[in-house]
Amino acid sequence: MSAVPRVALIGCGRIGQLHARNLAAMRDMCEFAAVADWNLEAAETAARLLDVPHATSASEDLLASPDVDAVIIASSTDTHARFIEIAARHGKDIFTEKPIALDIEATERALEAVADAGVRLQVGFQRRFDSGYIAAREGIEQGEIGNVEMIRDAMRDPSPPPPEYIRQSGGLYRDMAIHNFDSVRWLMGEDPVEIYTTASALVSEDIREAHDVDTSIVTMRFPSGAIASIENSRRSGFGYDVRTEIFGSTGALMVGEYRYTPIRRFSSAGVLEDHQYFFLERFRDAYRNEMVSFLTALINDTDVPVSGADGRAALVIAYAAEQSLREHRPIAIDMKEPDRARSEHHADSLPTS
Amino acid sequence: MSAVPRVALIGCGRIGQLHARNLAAMRDMCEFAAVADWNLEAAETAARLLDVPHATSASEDLLASPDVDAVIIASSTDTHARFIEIAARHGKDIFTEKPIALDIEATERALEAVADAGVRLQVGFQRRFDSGYIAAREGIEQGEIGNVEMIRDAMRDPSPPPPEYIRQSGGLYRDMAIHNFDSVRWLMGEDPVEIYTTASALVSEDIREAHDVDTSIVTMRFPSGAIASIENSRRSGFGYDVRTEIFGSTGALMVGEYRYTPIRRFSSAGVLEDHQYFFLERFRDAYRNEMVSFLTALINDTDVPVSGADGRAALVIAYAAEQSLREHRPIAIDMKEPDRARSEHHADSLPTS
Amino acid sequence: MSAVPRVALIGCGRIGQLHARNLAAMRDMCEFAAVADWNLEAAETAARLLDVPHATSASEDLLASPDVDAVIIASSTDTHARFIEIAARHGKDIFTEKPIALDIEATERALEAVADAGVRLQVGFQRRFDSGYIAAREGIEQGEIGNVEMIRDAMRDPSPPPPEYIRQSGGLYRDMAIHNFDSVRWLMGEDPVEIYTTASALVSEDIREAHDVDTSIVTMRFPSGAIASIENSRRSGFGYDVRTEIFGSTGALMVGEYRYTPIRRFSSAGVLEDHQYFFLERFRDAYRNEMVSFLTALINDTDVPVSGADGRAALVIAYAAEQSLREHRPIAIDMKEPDRARSEHHADSLPTS
Amino acid sequence: MSAVPRVALIGCGRIGQLHARNLAAMRDMCEFAAVADWNLEAAETAARLLDVPHATSASEDLLASPDVDAVIIASSTDTHARFIEIAARHGKDIFTEKPIALDIEATERALEAVADAGVRLQVGFQRRFDSGYIAAREGIEQGEIGNVEMIRDAMRDPSPPPPEYIRQSGGLYRDMAIHNFDSVRWLMGEDPVEIYTTASALVSEDIREAHDVDTSIVTMRFPSGAIASIENSRRSGFGYDVRTEIFGSTGALMVGEYRYTPIRRFSSAGVLEDHQYFFLERFRDAYRNEMVSFLTALINDTDVPVSGADGRAALVIAYAAEQSLREHRPIAIDMKEPDRARSEHHADSLPTS
User: Fold this and answer.
1) By C-alpha distance, which of B277, B275, B280 is closest to B130?
2) pLDDT of C25
3) Please, which residues 222-281 of chain D have a Cβ atom closer than 8 Å to chain A?
């Protein structure tokens, strides 16, 4: 066995390629042994570009391979839970893109497999590895702003994903707001006790037809009395917008940055700055850092920083957000025994305008 | 009768003194004829400092005086409606600080008196005269950001007012959030149809004892499907914080400014800027501009820009926000026939932490 | 005699009107007794708008009037020195717009008259009353940035003044850079010992024909070894640009602000902010504050904060800047016995491009 | 021969390691074949971490090796010119860190060797590959700001280098300001015709003892009449400070960014942002981009973007800056036949404070 973990990447789509490039630059921390994609050509291209010795379309074989110590699961969402179970059964440490699954039952089955096997599972909530969010969390923990009283967490994509993505996404809450649910509970250090959702389908006909929403504000209450609002939109019109403001009894912390290129243009029209367009730009370093954290945990034989329980918790909150939208009332959240009714058509009850 | 309106100011407290200084610098637009305050000394001091010929403690006499064409009501909130009625009966044009009254009935009685007398009534929502908010409104109207889909409107005071103020304030919604209710409906160009309130009393024991809240998020839905969140806090810990973000289908407008003094300090600790401390700093120009608008309407014999109906509408929304908090559910808003139940003790139903 | 000084304003042009409006709002600190302008109509208009009892075209009579305690000289530059002498002879305290005069001899004669009469003379270097510059000066004095090692002081007008102004202005250094010369020596707390000028006439044919320059960098050396650069342009193309950066051994202070209205516009083109257009916007408060300082010194019988000696010192530096340009070499500055050769045609020796 | 160039890195110090990490992540553009360092251990460590097959302390052998197509020279400055000559003689394409050499003669000999061999030589002026500087250059070329009239280019290191570095650095102008000389002439699109230097040794006794300066303003004139100022300091006290402002007839472009982490801290003390500490942070992407450009030129058989002539030109300007300091007068620059007198002790003639 090698001194550093032998790592295989499953899934060579956009996010998989990102992880692949990061892994390729960490050869002191891992042996990047293999890539898999159901599309063999995609796997072979990635392997060639990044000097990875093995490429395959047989993802499940790779998950079971004795030549691999850890797997990075970046395949389509509907495969995550199954791949986690296979990898766990074969004793691999696992990094998986979020979400573990779109429903709580599948999530819990995957977590059981992980627990039974005693392997590590890290979930890809990359915000937790952004220098701004880390500084915010540390500031909170060190009492820099006193008691946290309110959080505002906003997330907007520049433009909506294609219809086929929307249909399989699990909806706005499990696909997109799940990042906010994770970061808010991580920053607060406690789970919400109540949630209320106000949302609309304004952005595209596709989203409305998929019974999904695209413009949403979720408010939450925490045991401490602190409250939070989460804003989501599938289209900003101007670029990727992720900003979090944390208000405490003695001050505030604001995380976010929109400027992309270090230039300002002064003319009689005013002063123009550019704007980051997408999450790949905003969280480029965070994606690298989360992989470093995962590999470090493997090398040092310690716990990974974002657990499967964190993945499940964010999904429980997403369910409650959908339930509030469906039932048009505030919903008390039971993190242990959540309401498990899935909103297949959670936009059906939207008020018609 | 003079060529410009003869103006009397009622109330020489903090906000009254601000209006007084502004009026004193507009001698080309008005004859600043008199000041009144129940505390005669306060009135006389203001008159002496600003070269106003007449000072009195008899506010009601002044409201009825034939030597006055228009009155600026900046006395305590509980006197507004009564003073409006007196002034209207005597044919004066009226500028009043917000709110007209703390309950809808008194508000409507005052508006009836104004309508019966055919005088003008302008309500002191000063944000509408801030260059940033004006630019935002114009940008929306000109389609600069397409259809408005979401608004986030935040307002935080640096520190809570004294207990006696809290007790007479009418509570967070009628006293403070009423500014947000006005600005959101003004920016949207439509009234909300539904509202939901999440709030806590975290800042001070005084506020909790007054059955009030101090930390609040209100979400709203509009007929167009657009949604809004309004954040309020009685204490920011860092200064006055008023920021509004308007998200449209093709872009966004963000109003707000925190920097106070044009200096940045660079050290090994980082880069430090200062912050505006209070609303008097942030809205200094807006307060002047609203007075210019009022006087201009009088001189040109046109309508005033913020009507009594606007004052009533913001109060109706405040009632609904309180009802939502009390009944712990989303409330449909009927602007014409609102629920008139007053929340004397609207924090009673707060979840205990 | 009144309890507060009786003040007369001489000159009702742009800057005179600004001072007039400020004085009119300070009736607790002065009796605004009279205005004068060679154009009687201008004086009468100002008096009517601001409720000033007396207007005249006889400026010199007003400077000598027994009914006036102090005068504000905001007439054309070529009258400053003469008016100062008259006012001083009649025992008036004097506030004068900069510069005292365009040549050192006339400046020194005016200062002698002031000294002989024992009256106060304050020169209108308004930057010294800007909150940013005040904070910078205080930061330096308190050792916030250690020893000052370098200053960069930039000043750009949005567009060049009309040809007739250029011809009578005294040239870029005595008319415009004189503000920088004052602020740099004030911030440094010492006078420069050497100066070198690099400049061009690029902006307009008028400026070139007036043998003036419009684009200039002046570098200076101070006794402490600290160095400074001063940038000037008669046209920025984007608005008024005044920024000063002070670099010390342990940090830096940067004074300046370009944003005018508190709104930011986000679109796919980027993020657009507006920009202040002119010095009246940037230094609105500073102009008011300098008048408050002047009146306060009169009321409290103390020294005024910007002396005639300061006015002379900035002019001496301007002479040296011109000499460097003319002689194309660094010039040692003797503040006490400066080279008094006037550059009537100081752009003659410019390298032709 | 491989399809992509086989590259060797010479020098595994700080900047060499940076290039090594970048090369290791570009395995689709090069075969990273070997590393050399006089310290064999340093070379072997780099090779192991980055999966490079060959490590050696015999740099000159590697420069001549038939198994290498191109070399990256990141060894100490005094070796650059000699290594370039060896590599050129053996037909290698060359990327070298700046400067080519500390004197013009050695520089010209190296350029002759390159020309004789017909190989490529790219000089490591990384600013030209920063997105902000690229945008500025493009804006100028596209006439976005009209005619360029003034440039201000500032560069400050957080703290001075160690004494041994200072002694071998070639002095402030050849070591540090050379970046500014390159970027200003690149942005202007023309070479300066005259230069004047004002400088001091204020930062450390070491620098003064090395007859060097540490605090400098250089002004320049260009054939178009445009003027420029260049500010340098060996110590900012707050972090790395590189900012460039370009003023044109219709607007301005400002390049620079100080914020490092996307967080702002609001407290009663004000608003605190952090600051980039060093050039490795500020120009991380630029260093990667310049390597991509070099490899792309090799792969596509095109010219490299920053030539040896550019390296020589910046050095000629540095000589003139030193001459101005030494002779205390403005110096006309002849780019073709420069004054070649080296300032071994260029701070000797500094005014004593």
Assistant:
1) B280
2) 85
3) 250-257, 259-268
